[in-house]
Amino acid sequence: MCELGKRLKEAREARGLELAQAAEVLKVRRAILEALEDCRFDELPEPPLARGYLKRYAQLLGLDPAPLLALYPSSAPQISEPVSPPSDKPSATSRPGWLWAVPLAVLLVLLGWWGYRTLNRPSTSTPTPPPSAPVTPPPPKQVSLRIATQPPGARVYLDGFLLGQAPLEARVEAGERTLRVEAAGYQKYEQVLTLQTDRNLSFALTPVPPASSAPEPPAPGTVPPTNPTSPTPTTGLVLRLEGTSWVRVTDGRTGRLLYEGTVASGTQLSYPLPVVVRVGNAGVVRAIVNGQDRGRMGNVGQVVTQRFGE
């Protein structure tokens, strides 16, 4: 695996994304992403289109596209056509030399006369201009997108990729894009935007009506409300974040997704056992099981999956 494919694959696995999920978000064939990660550049389309796929994939994974585009090969090797060697076999229509004497003499006279006329004819032709340099396609058009929300701090997604928390300002590619805004305790807002010029948008999210029964677990991508100063529960699993990390928690019996998202430092998450936990930065996630501190789940930057409970 080359350096380009290695960076893409590690970033995707750190976010817990499958190839099929990434292909669905980007609206491209899964084979395109597989070829990029496996460095099978001969299976990709022409370089301008393949570089566009690479740039969008890098943005989805939260990577800077410029270093990855620099690793993409500039062109594919060209295969030259074989040249057949001249044959020394005499022509089947060869004749004795004396039969060609008269036609050869006539041909030489005609060639001499044509050459004389050509050399003494005044030149009227226009010189052929040199071939123009290849035209480099312009980079994709970008526009400025400013977003403010009420309440502040809502998470803003564009085409499924997290831009950040409002209020924010970002440079994005022009075109038809899907905007999604989420905040804990508020209804999700989603809209298809046609971005051709700079936009300044403001959204007031609608609170979720109070339910008569016990509240549901937080939706994937939202940070559940926690109080880091509250006492640590003595039963179940507690995840204490000592830095920022992506976290996914699923029920150990049913496989139901309980939580998925990027959690800030100082946050504390609690779940009943058994559960399966996958983190993208194991060195900042401390696991406490039934009141016993099990230590950090791994090293900084390491992606770790671990089951807790029966």
Molecular structure report:
Mean pLDDT is 80; it is low at 76-94 and 212-216. Helix 2 packs across helix 3 and helix 4 (47-60) runs antiparallel to helix 5 (65-71). The two termini are 38 Å apart. This protein has 310 residues and is an alpha+beta fold. 22% of the residues lie in helices and 28% in strands. A hairpin with a 2-residue loop joins strand 13 (285-289) and strand 14.
Topology:
Layout: H1 3-14, H2 19-26, H3 30-37, H4 47-60, H5 65-71, H6 101-119, E1 142-150, E2 155-158, E3 161-165, E4 168-173, E5 175-182, E6 189-195, E7 199-204, E8 237-241, E9 245-251, E10 257-263, E11 268-271, E12 275-279, E13 285-289, E14 292-296, E15 304-308
Parallel strand pairs: 1-7
Antiparallel strand pairs: 1-4, 2-3, 2-5, 5-6, 8-11, 8-13, 9-10, 9-12, 12-15, 13-14
Across the major sheet, the strand order is: 3-2-5-6
What class do helices, strands and sheet pairing give? alpha+beta
**What is the 3D form?**
elongated
Question: How can the largest sheet be summarized?
Answer: 4 strands, antiparallel
Q: If helices are DSSP runs of H or I spanning 4 or more residues, what is the number of helices?
A: 6
Quick rundown:
This protein has 310 residues and is α+β, with helices and mostly antiparallel strands.
Name its key features:
four-stranded antiparallel sheet, alpha+beta, single chain, 434 Repressor (Amino-terminal Domain), Immunoglobulin-like, 310 residues, 22% helix, 6 helices, 15 strands
